[in-house]
């Protein structure tokens, strides 16, 4: 059906007394057999589905409002409304309804609203008592009028009769003329009565009366009456605010006088509802439902009438209000609205405005951006990816957003929290589209990690840099003088960044894994375990907990290689006997490893830290870890003993040097196959020095590391535990634990050190050699089974780095 006269929007009133849009379609009236009567039918214009099927009940009160609205109630708490595109269509359907009910189409309400308690009494009333007799509109009658208006509010039928009488006699305009006389005479008593009268008329909840009261001619006098609340010692100055303080500025030319009048009216009526009228009591909450509807449909009409030709930074506050109004539109119209904004260049304009110094303008731009992200994250993602092909990283929209988050001057970081939520929505794979030809997820995440991630992590890397650590070390680093800044606002910002990175660990796969390993990010994050702000230390711990929770052997090898449990255990020992959230979180981390039986991590913890942890007996976590470790060691020993002795003879064993060369060659091949997912030597950020690029420099670094390892043996603290020195060098991550953890499980006692190349040679020469070092003449089934059980073969030993 292409007839625009019949085009309508269907609304229902929800529990919060707000109108919900149910869709747009075309209305018709016809006989429905199932309902046994003439009915209103609305079919959706998009797919022809039935949006509304409502029988025209002869006893239902239908109301016609604002020439294009028909409102009625089908049940006690189920109100419906049809909003017509054209007045002619509304008149046509209204005639059908009146025809069924036997009413004159000139009426605004087809039935008087009657409650059950008054129904019988109403039936007995003579025909002549349909209207209430109003007192003459004079100064000496104001008290009588006020009593009359107040008395009818408890009776629905008397409210209807009073409303009809007020409308027929043009009574409201006469009252407002009396108001002007009272104000000129400074008649305070009369002004107080007029306050009660006008407030009562508003509570009659009649759209026809609102149209009179809120017209340009009357609205300021209505506001004036409401200034004289008897409960106030002095009257309010609402008219002064509306006429002098509140200024309407046309940021876009509005040539339509009707539209301009509608905008002014809506603002003033909203002011009356929100500022002037007191919050209604439980008994009065339904009295103003029509006022809410009046404002709502005005806003819908304004958004529909506005025609925007151009977007620029000077209109940002206007567009913020415009976007807020658009939330009242039905989904199809709201989609068209935001698509129009996108075509007009809203995103490039926001990019400029969000970088401005004006805090208010920036805040408005952030609100508009949040509307756009909520409407369509894909639209924003598509824009920034296209932008990246033409612009530098510094001026990309997402980087501008990240920089605004980082530079938020609010001590509570309110703006930063809002922006972080928007970033999280943009990088959430759950709302990314996947098609047969292209996958938005992989394209956008590649873009984000290549162009934006370095901006997001910059504050984190800056505040945990090695240079800063070295300076602090010379000054004399301790618990209160650590790498982590003591500034509370900076700590809050780092916590926000960590929260976003933790989200990435959970929802992104190889992108974040590559980034963590290439930047040695976990080591840098764990520096924050030293923070005096417990919430920041907990954020760092949560980041590590999410990584371990993935049970990914690449991550596990990275953690054991870099000895990254050190700062966690140091934090636990520093916490002492205090039973707090930090203590519980650290214990839960180790308990997870025990319960999930993550063998490589269990072996690393027991071999390197058990001496320091064995005194902790208020939980059985660490004893349980040692039990798991010993069980695994026994199992490995039994498998080793099942191998024929001839294969364990040195006669059939390669020497250690040849073995290392083969393993090095094998590991290089493994890296080529697995690509970036392999544990590669940790890359430093651009601000840090490159790794030694010659063999001689590498050997010097290695010797220095070995001598440092001898000095960094566990030292007993004053509390009786052990304190470990946390090395911040990337080379330490590459050089530590060169023997595989499973090899150590089978052969070495818990008191063994982290391991070195000399230890590898000794192990290779011993009788109880690792499985990876065996050279058999034939393949044995046991060997294949063991390879399947282990995610990482012992022969895949990490390189020392080059």
From TrEMBL:
InterPro entries for this protein: ARM-type_fold (IPR016024), EVH1_PP4R3 (IPR055236), P4R3-like_central_dom (IPR006887), PH-like_dom_sf (IPR011993), PP4R3-like (IPR051137)
Annotated GO MF terms: protein phosphatase activator activity
Parts of the chain that traverse the membrane: none
Biased composition (Low complexity): 727-762
Domain PP4R3 EVH1-like: 5-101
A Pfam family hit: PP4R3
Domain of life: Eukaryota
All residue ranges annotated as the Serine/threonine-protein phosphatase 4 regulatory subunit 3-like central domain in the record: 144-631
Recorded GO CC terms: centrosome; chromatin; cytoplasm; nuclear speck; protein phosphatase 4 complex
Biased segments, Acidic residues type: 663-674, 780-791
Gene Ontology biological-process annotations: DNA damage response; gluconeogenesis; positive regulation of gluconeogenesis; regulation of double-strand break repair
Biased composition (Basic and acidic residues): 683-714
Segments for region (Disordered): 663-802
PANTHER family associated with the record: ATP SYNTHASE GAMMA-RELATED, SERINE_THREONINE-PROTEIN PHOSPHATASE 4 REGULATORY SUBUNIT 3B
Family: Belongs to the SMEK family.
The protein's name in its UniProt record: Protein phosphatase 4 regulatory subunit 3B
Gene: PPP4R3B
């Amino acid at each position: 059906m292409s007839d625009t006269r019949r085009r309508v929007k269907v609304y229902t009133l929800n529990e919060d007394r707000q109108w919900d849009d149910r869709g747009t379609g075309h209305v018709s009236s016809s006989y429905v057999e199932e309902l046994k009567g003439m009915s209103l039918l609305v079919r959706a214009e998009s797919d022809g589905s039935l949006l509304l099927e409502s029988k025209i009940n002869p006893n239902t009160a239908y109301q016609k409002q604002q020439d294009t609205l028909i409102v009625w109630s089908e049940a006690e708490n189920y109100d419906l409304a049809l909003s017509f595109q054209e007045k002619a269509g509304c008149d046509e359907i209204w005639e059908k309804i009146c025809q069924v009910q036997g009413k004159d189409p000139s009426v605004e309400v087809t039935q008087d609203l009657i409650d059950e308690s008054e129904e019988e009494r109403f039936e007995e009333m003579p025909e002549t008592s349909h209207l209430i007799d109003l007192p003459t509109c004079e100064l000496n009658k104001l008290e009588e009028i006020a009593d009359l208006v107040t008395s009818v509010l408890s009776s629905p039928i008397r409210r209807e009769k009073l409303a009809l009488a007020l409308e027929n006699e043009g009574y409201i305009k006469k009252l407002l003329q009396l108001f002007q006389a009272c104000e000129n005479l400074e008649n305070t008593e009369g002004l107080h009565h007029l306050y009660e009268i006008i407030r009562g008329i508003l509570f009659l909840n009649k759209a026809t009366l609102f149209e009179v009261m809120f017209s340009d001619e009357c609205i300021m006098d209505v506001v004036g009456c409401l200034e004289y609340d008897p409960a106030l010692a002095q009257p309010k100055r609402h008219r002064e605010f509306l006429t002098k303080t509140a200024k309407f500025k046309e940021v876009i030319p509005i040539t339509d006088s009707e539209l301009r009048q509608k905008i002014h009216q809506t603002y003033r009526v909203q002011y009356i509802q929100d500022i002037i009228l007191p919050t209604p009591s439980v008994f009065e909450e339904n009295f103003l439902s029509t006022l809410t509807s009046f404002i709502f449909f005005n806003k819908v009409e304004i958004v529909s009438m506005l025609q925007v030709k151009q977007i620029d930074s000077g209109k940002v506050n206007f567009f913020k209000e415009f976007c807020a109004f658009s939330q009242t539109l039905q989904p199809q119209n709201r989609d068209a609205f935001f698509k129009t904004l996108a075509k007009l260049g809203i995103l490039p304009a926001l990019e400029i405005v969000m970088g401005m110094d004006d805090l208010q303008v920036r805040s408005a731009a952030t609100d508009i951006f949040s509307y756009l992200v909520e409407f369509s994250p894909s639209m924003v993602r598509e824009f920034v990816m296209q932008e990246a092909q033409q612009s530098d990283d510094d001026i990309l929209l997402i980087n501008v957003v990240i920089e605004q988050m980082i530079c938020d001057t609010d001590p509570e970081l309110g703006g930063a929290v809002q922006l972080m939520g928007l970033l999280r929505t943009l990088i959430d794979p759950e709302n990314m589209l996947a098609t047969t030809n292209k996958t938005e997820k992989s394209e956008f995440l590649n873009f984000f990690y290549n162009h934006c991630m370095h901006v997001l992590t910059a504050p984190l890397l800056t505040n945990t840099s090695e240079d800063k650590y070295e300076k602090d070390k010379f000054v004399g680093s301790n618990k209160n003088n650590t790498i982590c800044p003591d500034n509370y606002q900076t700590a809050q910002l780092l916590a926000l960044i960590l929260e976003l990175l933790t989200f990435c660990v959970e929802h992104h796969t190889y992108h974040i894994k590559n980034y963590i390993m290439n930047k040695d990010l976990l080591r840098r994050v764990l520096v924050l375990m030293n923070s005096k702000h417990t919430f920041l230390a907990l954020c760092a711990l949560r980041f590590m907990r999410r990584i371990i929770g993935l049970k990914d052997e690449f991550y596990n090898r990275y953690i054991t290689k870099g000895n990254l449990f050190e700062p966690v255990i140091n934090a636990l020992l520093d916490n002492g006997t205090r039973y707090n959230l930090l203590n519980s979180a650290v214990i839960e981390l180790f308990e997870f490893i025990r319960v999930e039986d993550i063998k490589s991590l269990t072996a690393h913890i027991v071999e390197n830290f058990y001496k320091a942890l064995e005194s902790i007996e208020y939980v059985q976590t660490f004893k349980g870890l040692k039990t798991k470790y010993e069980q695994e060691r026994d199992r490995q020993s039994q498998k080793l003993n099942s191998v024929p002795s001839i294969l364990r003879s040195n006669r059939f064993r390669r020497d250690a040097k040849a073995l290392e060369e083969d393993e090095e060659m094998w590991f290089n091949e493994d890296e080529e196959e697995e690509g970036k997912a392999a544990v590669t030597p940790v890359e430093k950020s651009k601000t840090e020095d490159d790794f030694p690029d010659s063999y001689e420099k590498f050997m010097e670094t290695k010797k220095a590391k070995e001598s440092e390892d001898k000095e960094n043996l566990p030292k007993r603290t004053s509390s009786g535990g052990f304190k470990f020195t946390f090395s911040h060098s990337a080379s330490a991550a590459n050089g530590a634990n060169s023997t595989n953890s499973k090899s150590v499980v089978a052969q070495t006692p818990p008191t063994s050190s982290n391991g070195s190349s000399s230890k590898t040679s000794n192990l290779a020469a011993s009788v109880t050699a690792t499985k990876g070092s065996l050279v058999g003449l034939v393949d044995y089934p046991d060997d294949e089974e063991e390879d399947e059980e282990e995610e990482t073969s012992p022969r895949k030993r990490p390189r020392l780095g080059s």
